[in-house]
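Minutes, project check-in

Agenda point 3 was the complex the collaborators sent over. CS summarized: two entities, 1388 residues total, and the question is how they sit relative to each other. Sequences were read into the notes so everyone works from the same version.
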Amino acid sequence: MSLPSLRLTASLAALGAATAVLSAPAAPAKAEEGMWTFDNFPIATVNQTYGVNIDQAWLDRVREAAVRLQGCSASLVSGEGLILTNHHCVVGCVQDLSDAQHDYVKNGWMPATREDEKKCPGQTAEILTDITDVTERVQGAGQGLEGAAFVQARNAEAEKIQKEGCGDDPKWTCQVISLYRGGQYKLYKFRKYDDVRLVFAPEFQAAFFGGDPDNFNFPRYALDSGFLRIYEDGKPVATPNHLTWNPNAPKEGDVTFVAGNPGTTQRLLTVAQLEALRDQQLPISLIQFSELRGRLLEYSTTGDEAKRVAVDPIFGLENSFKVYYGQQGALTDPAFMARKRQEEADLRQRVAADPELAARIGDPWADLERVAQAQRDLYLPYRQLESGPRSQLYSYAKAIVRAAKERAKPVAERRPGYTDADIAALGRRLAQNAPISNDIEEIYMAFWLSKTREYLTVDNPQVKALLGKDSPEQIAQRTVSGTRLADPAFRAQALAMTPEQLAASGDAMIQFVLANDDAAQAIRTQWESAVSGPTSRAGEKIAQARFAAYGTNLYPDATFSLRLSYGSVKGWTYQGVTVEPFTYIGGLYERNTGAEPFNAAEDWLAAEDKVNKQTVYDFVSTNDIIGGNSGSPVINAKGEVIGAAFDGNIHSLGGSFGYDGNLNRTVTVSTAAITEALRNVYHQPRLLEELGVE
Amino acid sequence: MSLPSLRLTASLAALGAATAVLSAPAAPAKAEEGMWTFDNFPIATVNQTYGVNIDQAWLDRVREAAVRLQGCSASLVSGEGLILTNHHCVVGCVQDLSDAQHDYVKNGWMPATREDEKKCPGQTAEILTDITDVTERVQGAGQGLEGAAFVQARNAEAEKIQKEGCGDDPKWTCQVISLYRGGQYKLYKFRKYDDVRLVFAPEFQAAFFGGDPDNFNFPRYALDSGFLRIYEDGKPVATPNHLTWNPNAPKEGDVTFVAGNPGTTQRLLTVAQLEALRDQQLPISLIQFSELRGRLLEYSTTGDEAKRVAVDPIFGLENSFKVYYGQQGALTDPAFMARKRQEEADLRQRVAADPELAARIGDPWADLERVAQAQRDLYLPYRQLESGPRSQLYSYAKAIVRAAKERAKPVAERRPGYTDADIAALGRRLAQNAPISNDIEEIYMAFWLSKTREYLTVDNPQVKALLGKDSPEQIAQRTVSGTRLADPAFRAQALAMTPEQLAASGDAMIQFVLANDDAAQAIRTQWESAVSGPTSRAGEKIAQARFAAYGTNLYPDATFSLRLSYGSVKGWTYQGVTVEPFTYIGGLYERNTGAEPFNAAEDWLAAEDKVNKQTVYDFVSTNDIIGGNSGSPVINAKGEVIGAAFDGNIHSLGGSFGYDGNLNRTVTVSTAAITEALRNVYHQPRLLEELGVE
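CS then shared the predicted structure for the full assembly.
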């Protein structure tokens, strides 16, 4: 499915997708539709529909076992801090722990003892403990302000609330989350762990059998699972509130729950906003991702080490590409857009019919059409100059430069996100050591510079300032080879420097970022003033219109915060072809061609005579999920874990804008298959024992 | 501008762009708008507007000096067969004449004597001699037929007309051209030359200074010019009807004519057709071109020889990408689409107001909306399976396989395009020897196969048949290394074989194509039946509606046939920035950074003290042109050549769908600059003498 992750969340935010409200406006959510918050779950409906007996205690148990990772979801599955998630959520860590001599991505990570479990650089795990309504405080903070000032006042108030909730304690995360596109704000408080170790990862070719061609498709034969463990003070954390491991696959029609962190949905963007996505933001993303994909794919053919270091970047890029491609498919489907127009017309009609409401909210749709014009003009400079390249080294430099500039100001005048505590937290993130491929960094830098020149043109003053007399390739080479930012010790030093010291540091990447940062921040300010500020304000008014028109028994758009969806195990039929809900391990051997990416992993080939080919491998269900849900526990009515969701089918990609119960499906690797693999392919008795199966 | 060419023409055809009618439906064409046929040029309007005195004799002289190349335009500029065109129209030839030891692309091609001029493989030159109306015959042929049968009957009648006009004489080309989207059909007869030799090409970096970033932009400093010569019986052809070379640049406001072969415009596609382009065909092209661009760019960094062989493929791809990107810009501009909707509504209203007309034409707009649905379903399989890869070896194999299959049938049952004479002509084309890069061929094959699998999915039966148990890379390697089709002698042998002999030939590429050709032809038949046939029929009805509503004093959409446009030398103003109409040679040295692609060519650097920096280099004018016009002579009121058109500005890319006289500009390299370069940079007295300047 998706590294989607902070990267996805962030990049969708850059796409201008503020926050959303609801899918089916004129009617309550259809059966199985909805990514419900834990404080507003339709218990009665579910119990009635499926003949089950869930209650608040059931919900609390699930919540306490649900884990948020960077960009992914997960769950506690033993009393000793063991976490189940997807392989693709840990593959970055596996790559970080690998080197040219030890390719754990290819061969898998299977330490013999708990002592050999290694820390994943930068990985954190968060468990939601409390939800508090803070709507009035946040909405009050923006009152009477416009544009960038409005955005800043809101952000500052949210920061204040977070600070009050968690202080600077690194064991807690407090996050103010905008729900219903600004209709509600809630403070989510998480217990946070930052020593997260890699316990088990299968071979890449087992986890990602079928590769990009099979991604977002079904039938599927992928063991997309892995295990982590949370530690504190050097010891595994005791986690009595874990999910029970059920090693048996469900039956067709069985009820399924998915608890996780769907990243972003945009189900109630206005038609003008959807058209801006369709006509500008998604096309540019698809085009840029495609060219970069071509560069990385070709680079990966130049040698074994190039292939090794490119695996994870290519996976992330191809995955995002397919997500956007699927989204574009929905937005260019005339029937889909006709429904969106109809929904919008219905809501506007209801507003028009209620003079008091109409007077209170004005015409936010017209406001958003005006925003669309500004967005059209500003999008490319904002995207290129402020969002920057994928380069990790550039990101380090940018974070350090901005921290230095803000720290030089009095505290009250700093931008949100730059309190001393924030900068200290940044320091902890910068201290994480992860390997960096200079080749790939250079590709990222040269690509970004050449696209910036292409889209903004050579004669643009900011482009002239960026490039000077050099080519993109020369700057890429100079900044990547001329920086010490790959070294965490130097990052710590640099973070302590003043802007003047940074300028004198002689570090090529830092100097490059420093020279161009004012222009980048200027375009950011313009964007906030003309686009994100007015968008946020209009979104809030539309949310008020929705609450007034349809009531509040609705689920909010996804915001990478904990949600619960319900559904059942079920295949689907499309254009006359019916897809069954299960695959079996035996099917892997039938689909194996020996040629990448349809070559079965070596350990699986070796184990062919030992594995039970009748075991359910992957299955699909009607749960409503989206990128960010990767690794979510799939749970039966008893609250036991029966799999890890790792993908949606191709139809589910339009789910960003609307759910279709006939076609949208969640794809899950079964605990049955994981158990079988641990027993007969990878021979991991210590894990089986910990999971309570023999 | 564009290799646009047959490649562009063909690929736009694949985009489903049938044929078009007119830009400004409700009013006569605006001043300067229009790509007029030579038999319907608005002489009076032009003479009146510009105070000039052109007449039929003037038009005939220009027509007789205008030359059509593959995908480009050109003109005769001496009495001994000398042809002026663009460098980018001859760079393929320059590359063909180069090898790893002789890089004429980089260093230029400047033979000392006429005897050293070398034949360009496959290049032809055609001069229009007659135009005959054949509308009734062609329209009559389709009567009473539908779908694929309709398309085939029309094509067969057009072939018959062509055969009657030119027989099998290789010195003549007869072509039935559809004008006004099927409103008229005309037989164009050309004198054809197939011994075309390369006379002069400057250094690549002089011709294409600024590279892709400057392409379709202005100000510009590019010597995008080159010379060819037509030979017959081993001697230069005597061409008394040539244009006179005027070595002086025009002044601002001077009238300018451009005679050439604009490839394709789509100015009166219906809104449904434009939306299909916007939502499916252009996005897929942009995405695929981008990924392939990334692959080729990265490949070109792997060594000097890789860089050399990739120059032309990358240029062609980036150029096409930018064309499509510009087109997409127009189609996603809300104001532009609103005008298109308004125009369509106006025409439909006029039809509705005329019951006789309405009864005669029915509702072709509704027909096209139904086509859009079929097109949506068939486009990807048609594009992937029938259009095939960019690979030259694959193209050879496909041509040979199809010829063999058709030749096995009785003449009356063959598809159009496969008479014995057609197959003989194919044999002559296959005999042309051009170097082939196996590396790039493999990239093309692997890319195409992987995209076919991606878009049609692994479980599609045709994809299964294509790939079998192999990866795209394995098939690419096997077919490219296992074919003898790079050898013209083997191509001649293969063309003589039966399908059975081809199957037994042991040639990997031929066998691969043979195994998949039935499926490709099947999807082609479906496409003709459900898409191109009904589109053509509806287009014709809309053309009738237009003639009825607005009269016949209109220009037809571009069809890569000879047209004349008029305008004047003029800059433009956009978003407050004014661009002057001229650049001067001195500006080249100011823009030179030394870094690719802004590094001035070596001979120009060496000549800096000798050249006259006040010479006009490039200039812009308001002429209405499009891809295919590359190399067109720009002509003054006296009928003298004053430059070679080589590009449009960025705004002109929307010109595919409509002309905007405020912004659309033609970009031309002046004869003044070419003269100065021949004199003081490249020292070519023999050419200067032939051009009549000392």
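Noted in discussion: Residues 508-550 of chain A form the longest helix (43 residues).
Follow-up: revisit at the next meeting once the mutant set is ready.
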